[in-house]
Design brief:
Blueprint (H helix, E strand, L loop, with lengths): L4 H17 L9 H8 L5 H24 L3 H22 L4 H10 L4 H30 L8 H31 L16 H20 L1
Helix pairs in contact: 1-4, 1-8, 2-4, 2-8, 3-4, 5-6, 6-7
Length: 216
Amino acid sequence: MSSSLPANLICLSIFAVSLSFLSNVNLYAFIPVLFLALNYKGEIKKVLLSILYLNFFILMVVFSALYNSQNELAITIFIRSNAIIMFALFAFGKSDYFEISYALQALRVPQKLASTFFFTAKFIFLAKEEYCELKKTMLTRNFHVKTTLFAYKIYANMLGILMLKCLDRAEKLQNTMALRDFKGKIYTSNIHLFNPKADIILFLICAISVALMTLI
């Protein structure tokens, strides 16, 4: 029983804002995360690896707070950050950027905002595609990662080429949309239907979690 993407967006926004303003953040913050994890249909291994990578930066902040003898602040930062990150990963881990932009449209947000998110996702997709092509080209030319001056020049050239290619692709995309008389609205056949039962349960669980942290 998985909640819908539009509902996940709403609940994540409310949950993240609530955690940001709560001074008493405890383990009750992980109740919605547990619900989403139990209903997650993607690969748990990928989500756990992403959490580990992101925790590397969180732990740096936590250790900094511990070093300054701010133990309560360190615990709050760790729980708050991980709760929001896990919520987002389990809610959208099996979705791509475009599905999230379609979910924004389903929520009837302003068309310009949904279109901006869509084209940002498109540009990220194009940049990643160009980077993978450059990486394959360097591997076929037997390039190895080193800390030499020549290697640094190669990195700089790759970055410059990547920027130029991305700008070129973005300009072509802009011209294409202009030729199609784009008016700021994205039309798609993807329909995000709400799942009332699961959506209401997720919303109630988030509300209970925030209420418990407020009262206890």
